[in-house]
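Backbone-to-sequence.
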């Protein structure tokens, strides 16, 4: 069915140093200690971890480098970090701390040349364009600032731009599907995958194992989830066995 490895990614949404989870970007509930949870997912076979400080940008907080270093020391898999990144110095500090990839969302909307500069300096494989989008008629609009501000950007135009600027990957979150658990936004995923050649990480909506399969069949190279893992509705090892049985190449 496929010749490339598909990745299962666990996401830690961080607020005030704790893992939280909500629905449609609101109603946040505490889900635990980030170091403990990161180690658990690493041990259980997640391919990568994504650490998103979801209030750092909107509340003007600094990146929690010390917490990130502790997370890195507790895991044996790549870590992507996003949230609160404002400039090239922030990106450099994270890469020096040992982060595998840096996810840029709001800062890229405010200053698209940041992607270009970061890609040239650190390599495109280190730079992820984080895009939060919501349905707007027959298309999708891009939001920023933890989903609170409408950028006025059309999703399909923006994904092409970030690829041209040098992003090596897109972390695509459907705000409509976030935390709802009825499946990823396959229509959006398919539309974006037709516009770009770089890998897409599907985010927002995972509730069943089948949803991961659907994401991979509709253009995602990786599928990210949070609450289904945090609250143990889906176990990563069982999910990977399921995907292998469905014909996907996964690292077990």
């Amino acid at each position: 069915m496929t010749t490339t490895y598909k990745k299962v990614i666990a996401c830690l949404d961080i607020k005030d140093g704790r893992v939280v989870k909500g629905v449609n970007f609101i109603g946040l509930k505490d889900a635990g200690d980030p170091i403990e949870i990161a180690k658990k997912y690493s041990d259980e076979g997640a391919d990568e971890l994504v650490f998103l400080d979801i209030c750092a940008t909107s509340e003007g907080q600094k990146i929690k480098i010390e917490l990130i270093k502790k997370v890195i020391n507790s895991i044996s898999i790549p870590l992507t970090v996003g949230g609160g990144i404002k400039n090239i110095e922030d990106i450099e500090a994270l890469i020096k701390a040992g982060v595998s990839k840096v996810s840029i969302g709001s800062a890229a909307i405010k200053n698209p040349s940041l992607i270009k500069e970061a890609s040239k300096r650190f390599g495109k494989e280190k730079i992820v364009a984080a895009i939060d989008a919501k349905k707007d008629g027959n298309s999708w609009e891009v939001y920023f600032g933890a989903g609170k501000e409408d950028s006025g950007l059309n999703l399909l135009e923006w994904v092409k731009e970030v690829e041209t600027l040098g992003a090596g990957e897109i972390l695509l979150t459907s705000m409509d599907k976030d935390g709802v658990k009825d499946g990823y936004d396959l229509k959006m995923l398919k539309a974006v995958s037709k516009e770009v050649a770089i890998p897409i990480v599907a985010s927002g909506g995972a509730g069943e194992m089948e949803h991961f399969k659907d994401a991979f069949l509709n253009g995602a190279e990786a599928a990210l989830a949070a609450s289904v893992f945090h609250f143990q509705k889906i176990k990563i090892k069982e999910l990977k066995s399921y995907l292998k049985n469905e014909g996907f190449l996964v690292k077990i």
